[in-house]
Each structure stands twice: as C-alpha cells, then as structure tokens.
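Dear colleagues,

As part of the handover before I leave the project, I'm documenting each prediction I ran so the next person doesn't have to rerun anything. This entry is a single chain, and its sequence is reproduced below.
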Amino acid sequence: MILRRWSRARPDGALLRADVRIPEGPPPGTAVVLAHGFKGFKDWGFFPPLADALVDDGHAVVSVNFSLNGVGDDPEAFTELEAFARNTLSREVEELEIVLEAVREGDVLALPPHRIGLLGHSRGGGGAVLAADRSPDVSALVTWAAVADFDRWGEETKEEWRQAGRIHVLNGRTGQQMPLDVTLLEDFEANRDALDVTAAAARIEAPWLIVHGMDDPAVKVDDARALARANPKARLQLVEDAGHTFEVGHPFTGPSPQFTEVLERTRDHFRRYLLEAGEPR
C-alpha cells in the first residue's frame, strides 16, 4: 500500500487535509472518501483499519480531516480548539464537495477513478448524504450512525448560546471542554433548507447502505429509520448490541464482532457498486 498526504488551503488559511491510501500496482479505477463526525478525525479508532480493508479490496481511499475539526499537526490530538469553535455545518459539506471534485478531476490520484464511493460517520454521515445529493460523482454511499437532522440542541441551549456567543461540549474521551461559537447555530438556522438531511435523503439515487447500532446512545436508531423511510431504495442494516462506534474505541485495540459485521457489509456494498459495476459507459 502507498500512503500519501493531500491538502487544500481554504480562503481563511485553514487546511483541508486527507490521507490517501493507494493499492500497489496499476492505478485503481475506484476510490472511497471517508468523512468523520463531530469530535472525530481521520485517524480516530476504526478509520485506519476501515481504510486499510478498503485498499485491500482494490480501492484508493481518501480519509478526510475537515479544516476546522480542531486537529492540527498532531494527528490524534485536539490542539486547535479555537478552530474547532469556528466550524460550521455548511463548511463541512462544502469541503466534502471539494474533496469529491478533487478526486474526480485527478488532483488527488494519478488518474481520475471511474467510480467514487462516499462513507460518513455520525455528523459526517449527515454531511455525506447532503454531498451525495449535490454531487454527480458519488456512485455508492454508506452511512454509519448518521444523523437524520442536524438540529440536536434544545431551546434552552440555543438561547444560552445566543446570549453568551459560545457554549462548550465535553469530550468524554479527552476530558476537554470544546468550544462552539454561535456561528455554528446561526449557519444552521440561516441554511436550514440546504442542510435538511432527510429531504436530501429522499433524493439520493446512488445505491445506499444505512448502518446503525441498535443501542446507539449518541444518535438514536430512530435517525436511521427516518433516513430509510425517506428513501425506500436504501438498504437499512441495524446492528444488535452496538453503540455509536460499534463497540470499538480510540486507540483502536482490535475489532469487535459488531465492527467486523459492519465492515464486511460495507466492503460488500462497495465491491458490488464500485468494483463489480465496471466502468460507466
């Protein structure tokens, strides 16, 4: 496997970064883009083994770090909390579109692939639905524990947020109080229609696998069911005895049975709709 780095400077100077894994041998004809969720990053837990498994299947894999996800030069630490505070939902979706276009145009790989897959986890799953709806480049979509609605805040929290200009959320893994500027809320409220995940879900044409843990405490399984109702063509896979990250954590210490099940179903989906579909005419 060949590992490369790719980055794109945003207008404010922040870097959109990605790890690009490429199988040895001839340039691959397929690529899969991976999008992390809230308080996530490209090197978290299951993302590297997921990427490695997809490379073993013959895909190039592009694992994204959103430019304001709070991770800087240390790939596994939130050292840029002021950047994290400035992030918005619209920005993350735009950045997914940038990466998809760069993959399609040959800016990321030596040769443009003829088919591109997209996978997003949690909030990144919601973003992946929006990006897949907007982009003609996505030939297959997989979402893991995806949100069906970005509006996750109560009215009391919103009012406090507007008055203070900033709230904090606890990162249970690191113990950090992570700041969120009110611009995140303002962006969502100003672009509510454009950020409507369920409405976008109804328009998805690409083959779509919706995966969700039955015991997910962070994003309830009702979100998966809502996405599946919006798009009856999508395939819903509910995983028994599985939480938000399918019973694995960070650092990754090995696969759980739940993660193994999810990984195999994901690989099968991308094999079928990227590899076995052949080159489009």
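Residues 257-275 form the longest helix (19 residues). Residues 2-150+192-275 form a domain with the Rossmann fold fold (CATH 3.40.50.1820).

All the best with the project,
I.
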